[in-house]
Specification:
The chain has helices at residues 2-32, 37-62, 67-91, 98-120, 127-151, 167-201, 206-217, 220-231, 235-260, 276-299, 304-323, and strands at residues 94-95, 124-125, 263-264, 270-271, 274-275, 301-302. It is mainly alpha-helical. The strands form three sheets. The chain has a two-stranded antiparallel ribbon. A two-stranded antiparallel sheet has the order 2-3. Helix 1 (2-32) runs antiparallel to helix 6, helix 1 (2-32) crosses helix 8 and helix 2 (37-62) runs parallel beside helix 9 (235-260).
Amino acid sequence: MSAVILLFILGLVCLIKGGDWFVDGAVGIARYFRLPELLIGATVVSIGTTLPEVMVSTTSALSGHGEIAYGNAIGSIICNTSLIAAITITIRPGKADKKALKLPVLFFFAAAAVYCITAYGSGWFGRPVGGLLLIMFIIYLICSAKEVKGSFDTSGKGDGEEQVRTASRVAKHLFFLIFGAVLIAAGANLLVENGILIARALGVPESVIALTFVALGTSLPELVTAVSSLIKGHGALSLGNVIGANLFNLVLVSGTSMILAPFHTPQSAVFLGMNASLILEIPLMLLVMAILVVPVLVKGELKRAQGILLLCIYAGFCIVQFNL
């Protein structure tokens, strides 16, 4: 048991340090190219933090359980938005970059529309749908690259460290970004696996373990990035990361799983006599994203009331899920 506790602590250390370096690398790249932090968060950072979901869903699909990606994607979006983003907004509300937000939001709701049409229509998430979602992922990356190129600012010189624009500095930022992402993934794995062993040794019920350690596992990278960003005063990076990660959960995570193992709309629970996924989870996914992004697109700012409302919604969702 002592070895398990040590590995648990090691996982925690890796998460904390990895998150620290990951955010430093992302912010460094954003400053070097003078790009909005929200844009970097919605592209480069989101790909890094979505890797656990990609690994879990791909592994499940290869074993013939592609439907796991469905619940993993929708559950992660609800958690990312109504818990992680909500915490960020509640602690540090303020202005947000509307222009940088438009592209990922547009693609998210376009992908969500594909999801809804499929789920409420045929109910069959086959390879054509998966291929369409992956094409959307590629188009998003191309559009993001063009937006980055359009935002690239070469005029003038920055102050202090920003005046030093060398290849070695870019390499340093990339190292921190990549190594930080690796540390986060390794730390999350160590923390969850050994946390489960400790919980079992303490007699914690399996149902509680599933609702805590296992459910939190794939969202830990986003949570760690959000906390590290807040501590360092980079709330925009955290917001961009959440929105980008939500998009990638639909187009990359789900799309890959549909290609590898097509599936029907799962029905793991019943709510009000109907498939809980269709009348609770998908509508809630759309609702929390709307609550998060609409005020930003309209007024260009985030209010603490948004964060509190989202946290209340997440608490209610957890209560309902526990009683289904």
